[in-house]
């Protein structure tokens, strides 16, 4: 389970056996969400609204890096 970023209590990662579309998992305080990278669509959410909004901001900022790491890992 490669961890891509730890910041402000958020942990961004993907699993070793992932599937398309490219997406990122994020955890904070025991809550989690799954966000598609291309569209920033939240496909699973068990986070408080404030934390989800912050996670989306962080994914937006680091989107290119996350996609590059996905490609490096799975290709």
Helix-and-strand structural type:
alpha+beta
Count of distinct strands: 5
pLDDT averaged over residues:
96
In whole angstroms, the N-to-C terminal distance is 16 Å
What are the SSEs and their pairings?
Elements: E1 3-7, E2 10-13, E3 23-28, E4 31-36, E5 42-45, H1 49-74
Overall description:
The chain has one helix spanning 49-74; strands at 3-7, 10-13, 23-28, 31-36, 42-45. It is of the alpha+beta class and 75 residues long. The protein has one domain. A 5-stranded antiparallel beta sheet has the order 1-2-3-4-5, with helices on one face. The model has no long low-confidence stretch (mean pLDDT 96).
What's the quick description here?
This protein has 1 helix and 5 strands. The protein has 75 residues and is of the alpha+beta class. Strand 1 and strand 2 form a beta hairpin.
Q: What are the main properties of this structure?
A:
75 residues, alpha+beta
């Amino acid at each position: 389970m490669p961890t891509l970023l730890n910041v402000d209590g958020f942990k961004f990662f993907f699993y070793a056996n992932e599937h398309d579309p490219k997406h990122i998992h994020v955890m904070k305080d025991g809550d989690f969400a799954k966000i598609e990278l291309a569209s920033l669509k939240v496909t699973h959410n068990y986070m408080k609204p404030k934390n989800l909004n912050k996670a989306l901001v962080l994914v937006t900022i680091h989107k290119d890096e996350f996609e590059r790491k996905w490609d490096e890992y799975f290709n």
